[in-house]
Amino acid sequence: MTIGISTVQDVLENYKSAVYEQDAEKFLSTYAADVHIYDCWGKWECRGISSWRQNVIEWFNGLSEERDVLKVDFDDLTIEENTNVAFAHCAVTFVAYREQPEEKLREMTNRFTLGLRKVNESWLITHEHSSLPIDMKTGKGMFNLK
């Protein structure tokens, strides 16, 4: 489903609101059918929207079961775009809250790189790469360096 998002910034705003609402279809609406994702959670990579859909539904179901609300912020955002192709990178922070009463539970910041293309006047994410720096001594991801 293409929803007519005319700016790359609108893609990111859709991402934020869809995560907060835990609306998988809204979230997936800005991803191309042939999306290629390298994620730092679960699967190493997802190829195609159906593979990515499985991850997203699992993610949102987990949040729902725990009754968590997730807020997303993009920092240090850089966007480069031309007529039909765009590239963006940023630090993205996910903060989980318990809805009632609002209580901060956990926070994580990682890095995002996005490749987008314009299809029928709407921007779609064709590639997404999320990553964390690794502590070379422990081999573990470092979640809150920002």
TrEMBL record:
Classification via InterPro entries: NTF2-like_dom_sf, SnoaL-like
One Pfam assignment: SnoaL_3
Domain SnoaL-like, residue spans: 8-134
Top-rank taxon: Bacteria
Designated name of the protein: SnoaL-like domain-containing protein
